[in-house]
Design a protein that fits this description.
This protein is of the alpha/beta class. The protein is built from 17 helices and 21 strands. The strands form 5 sheets. It has a 5-stranded antiparallel beta sheet with strand order 1-2-6-7-8. The protein has a 5-stranded parallel beta sheet with strand order 13-12-14-15-16, sandwiched between helices. Strands 18-17-19-20-21 form a 5-stranded parallel beta sheet, with helices on both faces.
Length: 469
């Protein structure tokens, strides 16, 4: 009772556990805005912001909702109540779908490397039951349920944070290219405080690996209040975003333990690509033959990622030459500009090297002043509509003694002749190249970080789920 009365006066977001030494068998928990999950074992219970640590002990969990509190005892049933009214609430028990093997390293030195190698399987799992290439179909129940809203939408706003924001930027290209619908991409942390214009005919797509990102959740609530349709994309069943959204899609990447996201990122792009293709079909932007050809090429992506992973020895050798760099520049154009941003983020967050990503054409507007013989420049340059421009960018870097590491399409000769190092990817459609070009950048960041003695899975000052502002 004392806790409940105190909480009615608390302002702001919280997820708290309160222990009184006079009652050593009980813990009182409560939440508002931040996630709190209770694991139900046999004569034992677990409390945390994420269910993953409980997996060794139980697969049954209850997610506390905003404005709820619970008295937790190891051996007694939970007593869940509303903070405001003290009304008793029945907590819904969720079954975790992950297994213990998925949160073990399986022979790898770090979870990050394991998760990089799991990307083909993660994408296959994200396809399962949705991408039916042999039948020329995509089936996404969340999209089908609101197909009329998607078909008539005036605008799509995608909100996310961190790596998920980069997948949103990729989606901006895909939705506008395939579905011809205007798209805006917003940081959740900026969107929620900007007093944005949200119309009832807008669709908000919220992306979060954990489904618990505080700023993205706040953006969702703002959008719902304005009457927009909210579509959530996350990797954790039962997470807050999956419960708050009107509809959504899980990425089915499996547990991602490493703080630096890899397979969740490519799985997000996979879901967003399927959405863009299906929306293009719904809006009448494809012929049947074009649509089927796109589905066939998308279905081939996991095998092509496996081919990229065969370059691991080459990538490790390249990483060894740049492990002592203090700065790095990443360049890309079009749909691969977000991959330049993602590559730079990966390097800085796990190796602690300052890195920046730019559209390649923007190099002349500032970053070119930093290029010298000590500056590695990573160029994402598959053979597409921007190729000749990227060749010119590479030549500009080399003219200033910069070191160029280029990700190119197999068989490339022009950039190969100019760059210091090249890493090849298999040929695919331009719109699908981000699923391939990001993999070498993940591996380069991983090897550089390991060679510098960094803890790849738990980089300093970072958390896997950012559940606070």
């Amino acid at each position: 009772k004392a806790v409940r009365l105190a909480l009615t006066q608390v302002v702001g977001a919280y997820a708290i556990c309160i222990y009184d030494k006079s009652y050593p068998e009980d813990i009182v928990v409560a939440k508002l805005g931040s996630p709190l999950v209770i694991g139900l074992g046999v004569n034992e219970k677990f409390i945390g912001s994420d269910a993953t640590p409980f997996l060794e002990y139980t697969k049954e969990v209850i997610y506390l909702e905003d404005g709820e509190m619970a008295s937790v005892s190891a051996t007694e049933d939970l007593d869940i109540r509303l903070i405001e009214t003290n009304k008793e609430v029945d907590g819904k028990i969720h079954q975790l779908e992950m297994d213990l093997e998925s949160i073990e390293k399986g022979g790898y030195d770090y979870f990050m490397m394991k998760e990089i190698y799991e990307q083909p399987r993660a994408i296959y799992d994200t396809f399962r039951g949705r991408l039916l290439a042999d039948k020329g179909m995509i089936k996404m129940s969340g999209l089908e349920e609101y197909s009329d809203r998607f078909r008539t939408a005036d605008r799509i706003i995608i909100t996310a944070c961190g790596t998920s924001w980069h997948s949103a930027l990729v989606a901006e290209y895909l939705f506008e290219e395939f579905a011809r619908v205007p798209v805006e991409v917003e940081y959740g942390s900026e969107f929620r405080y900007r007093n944005p214009i949200i119309r009832k005919n807008d669709i908000i797509i919220a992306i979060s690996q954990s489904g618990e990102t505080a700023d993205t959740l706040a953006a969702i609530k703002m959008a719902k209040k304005a009457g927009a349709l909210v579509f959530g994309i996350c990797n954790v069943p039962g997470s807050t975003i999956s419960r708050e959204a009107h509809a959504g899609a899980y990425t089915h990447a499996g547990p991602e333990i490493g703080v630096a996201s890899t397979k969740a990122f490519t799985s997000q792009i996979t879901v967003l690509t399927m959405m863009a293709l299906e929306l293009g079909k719904i809006r009448g932007e494809f012929s049947t033959s074009e649509y089927r050809a796109l589905l066939r090429e998308l279905s081939a992506i996991p095998k092509k990622i496996e081919t990229v992973l065969e370059s691991i020895d080459l990538i490790e050798d390249i990483a060894a030459q740049y492990k002592d760099a203090t700065n790095a520049l990443y360049l890309g154009r079009g749909v691969n500009f977000p991959i330049a941003l993602e590559g730079a983020l990966k390097l800085k967050e796990i190796s602690y090297i300052h890195a920046e990503g730019y559209p390649a054409a923007e190099m002349k507007h500032g970053p070119i002043a930093l290029i010298d013989e000590n500056m590695p420049v990573f160029v994402v340059a598959p053979n597409n509509g921007h190729y000749e421009k990227l060749v010119s960018n590479v030549q500009e870097v080399k003219a200033r003694s910069g070191k160029v590491i280029a990700v190119v399409t197999k068989g490339d000769t022009e950039i190969r002749n100019a760059a210091d190092h090249v890493i090849e990817i298999p040929e695919t459609l331009e719109a699908l190249t981000p699923l391939l070009t990001v993999v070498p950048l993940q591996l380069l960041s991983y090897f550089i970080a390991v060679m510098r003695g960094c803890d790849v899975d738990r980089p300093r000052n970072l958390a896997k789920s950012v559940t606070v502002e």
